Amino acid sequence: MKTLSVPLLLILYFFLIFCNPITRVHSSSDGDYYDDDEVQCKAWLVQSIPTDMPHLSLVPGVLSTADVFRWLAGNSSRSLDIIAQYWQLIAHPQDPRSGDYGYSKDDMLRFGANDGLEVYRELENAADRDVNIRLLQHSGVYPDYTEEPSKLALGRPNVKSVTLLLKEWWGSGVVHAKVWISDNRDVYIGSANNDWKSLTQVKELGIYLVGCPRIAEEVKIYYDNLWKLAHLNSSAYTKQVSDQQWQTTRKVPCWSHFLHRKERCRSPLPKYLEVKHVTGYPVLSDPDTFNVSIETPGLNYSSSHTQSSYLSFAPPELLFGQYQTDEQAWVDTIKSVGKGETVRISTMDWLGQSQYTSQTLYWSSLSSAISEVVFSKNAKVKLLVAYWAHFINSTDQYLKSLLYTNNLCASSKYNNCYGKVEIKYYLVPGFNLTGPSTINNTATKNIYPGYTRVNHGKYAVSDVRAHIGTSNLIWDYFYTTAGVSFGTYNPAIVSKLQKIFDTDWNSPYVQSVQPLEESRAFSS
After folding, report:
1. Tens digit of each residue's pLDDT (9 = 90 or more) over 297-323
2. What CATH number does the domain located at 41-218 have?
3. CA 194/CA 137 separation, integer angstroms
4. CA angle 358-364-370, nearest 5°?
5. Closest CA to 459 of 286, 298, 299, 326
6. Using CA atoms, how far apart are residues 215 and 461, in angstroms rounded to an integer?
7. Judging by DSSP bridges, how do beta strands 459-461 and 466-468 pair with one another?
8. CA geometry: angle at 180 spanning 287 and 252, to 5°?
9. Where are the domains of the chain?
10. pLDDT tens, residue by residue, 198-231
C-alpha cells in the first residue's frame, strides 16, 4: 500500500482542521482554546423579587440574582470583569447619610441585606484566589461612591478598579450597564445593580449565560472599549457636533458618525461598519448575530436546532463590527411581532424625550414602533411601567399620548385596524414608604430603605423574540449612556419571559393607565 506524501498529508490536515463544517476551534483573548462541539451554551432567566409580595406567583425555573452573582464570583478561576453603575453591596444602617439608616438588625435581616454581603465576600475570595478582576463603574452614589470597588483593589495587584465619567465624552450620561463576565465563558446581563437592595428589595430581570465563550468574547470587546475610554484624555478626543438628526448641538467622541466623515478622527476603538453618504447610525438590515445552540435546562424544548441570538450596545459610538445600536434592537423586537400577536414591554422609566440634556430632545422611536404594529399588524402591545417614589411626573402624559393610538386606530371604519395598546403601572407594595427610618433623631414613617420597592427590569418580548437590556426607555439611555442588551429567538426563553411578564401583568400590584379624556383630547 502506498503511503501519502508529506504535501498530501498537509493538505488533508488543513482540510480536517479548517474546512470541517462540524468542528471549529476558537482562541479566546486570554489564550484559551475551545471547541464548539465541546461547549454547550446554557441560559437561565434571572430575577430579584422584593420581599413582602405574597400575591406574586413564582415562575419555575428562574434563578435568583443573588445566587447568580455568588456563582459568577465563586466559580471564576482566571478572570472576572464587572460593569456597574454603582456599588452598595454592604448595607449601612448605622450611617446617618445612608438610606438604610435607623433600621434594626432584625429589619436588615428581614430585608435580605445579608445577600449583598455574601456577594461581596465571594468577590473578596475571588480576589484572594488571584483571579484577575477588573471593576468598571460610574462615580457611584452618595454616600459610598466607589468605596467598595476601591477596597477590593487595595493591596491586590490582580484587582483593578476604574471610574468612567461618560459626561466627559457625551456631555451627559453614565455607565448604566450591569454586566458580569467570568472566565470569558459565563455572562450576566440585566438590570440588577451591585447593590444589596437590587437582590431583595427591587424587582430585577436578567439573563445568565453559562459556557458561552463566543458571546462572552463579544461582550468583552465592549467592556474593553469602556476600559480604554477610562484611560484616554477625553478633551483630546471629543468635538461639538451640530446634530441634524436630533436638532441640537452636543458633545460627542471625535470618531462619531454624527460628525461628517471629513471631520472625524481615527477611532482608538475597533472599527464599526461604515455606511457611506449617511450621517449618524442608520438601521442595519443584517446586524451581527450568533447562530448558537442554547440549552435551557428545565424547559421542555430541544436545543438541537440553533436559534439566532444577538447583542446590542449603547451609545452608538461604542459599536464595533456590524453590531446594532440598542435603540434598533428595541425597535426591531417590537416590530418582530406577528399579525394579531402580542408584544410585552417592561421598564422602570418611559419618556418620549431626553431627560438629562441641557436642551430637551423629542424622541418617538419606540412609541412610533408601537403605533405602527398596532395599525399594520393588528398587534396588541402591553406596556408595564414602574410607579415608585422617584416617578418622573411627565411620564403619565407620554403614556396617555401613546394610548391615543387606540383612538386613531378606531377613528374610521375604513382603517381595518384592530390592534390595541394597554398600559399599566407596577406598584411594589411600600413604594411610598421608603427612605431612612430615622432623620435627625426623629422617626420617619418609612418602613423600607431608600431607593427600593420598584420594578427595575428592562425587557421586551414578542411572540418570537426576547430582548433583555440594561437601559430605561428614554433618549439619553441610547445616545449618551452605556448599555448592553442580549436578545434571542430561542422559543424556550421567549416563552419563559412571556410568563414572567404575564405574572406581573395579572398580579394585584398593577393599575391601568387611564386614557386621555375625550373632552381634553378634542378641546380647541
Report:
1. 977 565 557 889 999 999 999 999 999
2. 3.30.870.10
3. 10
4. 150
5. 326
6. 20
7. antiparallel
8. 55
9. 41-218
10. 999 999 999 999 999 999 999 999 999 999 999 9
